[in-house]
Amino acid sequence: MGFAIRPGERVMSAVRTVLGDLPAGELGVCDAHDHLFLRSPLLPGQELDDRDAAAAELRAFRELGGGTVVQWTPRGMGRRLAELPGLARETGVHIVAATGLHQAVHYGPDVLERVDDGLMESFIADLTTAPVRAGLIKVAGGFHGLDDHARRTMAAAAGAHHATGAPIAVHLELGTGAMDVLDLLCGQLGVAPGKVVLGHLGRCPDTRTHLRAARAGAYLAFDGPSRAHHATDWRLFDALTALAEAGHADRVLLGGDTTTAAARGGPGMPHLLRVLRPALAEELGEDFVRQVLVGNPARAFAADWPR
């Protein structure tokens, strides 16, 4: 199933990929939240650090019609930026990289001591002058709220957004705290809701919050097949149906969110297109599938980048 933006469909100017800026209409089918490389002290022995395995995932995604993968791995978590352009060229998949910072628990004291020291400038440099440039800013909330670390990193992310136009992608811990994030980023820090992508909403099946966030204008990412500790698959269809029936299909994004080496032996990136895409087409129709896999990411991840 190949898709492209239809003539006359409005998208913003470009998505910043690791090979340069790409007209948003050329993204194709998009995995809106995934990881090719990832390292965290919370996941000892489960690092995503195998280049061959990353290439195999991208090729499998491409063979099923995939066009773009958005890697949400932020600074200090083994994102391996230098590897990404070669992978994009070899596999034919566009890759969008991230700057930003995750929750404090993912870092040692050497990183955390520098959180207030030029963080916004580091994000801006990653987005505008680095040899391999990021195309989004990844930050994270806490469980049902925001701690001081989250507030500081989100303030830096908002500053970098205002300087560059880059979208901000937010890890919501177990899918919670969406409105706290929007209150801070959009209400206090002046980020337009349409420049915010809220991740992991499928992990908290709170339809009222989903609808509030969609009405506010944010993008809602439902990312990842069920893990052993959070059964989300059956709830996903209920959540997406509720959003579609309320007229918010234009706010939905889908992703795989592969985070551990063990997950590479499971569904992986291809699951999004091999299993989920046909099931959604049967349930909600081809137009819905095309919108959430192609049209929505083309708008969510595009910006008028400074030259």
Automatic annotation (TrEMBL):
List N6-carboxylysine occurrences by residue. Answer: 138
TM spans, by residue?
A: none
| Gene3D superfamilies recorded | Metal-dependent hydrolases (3.20.20.140)
Q: Which InterPro entries match?
A: Metal_Hydrolase, Phosphotriesterase
- Keywords, comma-separated and alphabetical: Hydrolase, Metal-binding
Q: Does the keyword Transmembrane helix apply?
A: no
Q: Does the keyword Metal-binding apply?
A: yes
Q: Member of which family?
A: Belongs to the metallo-dependent hydrolases superfamily. Phosphotriesterase family.
Its name, as the record gives it, is Phosphotriesterase
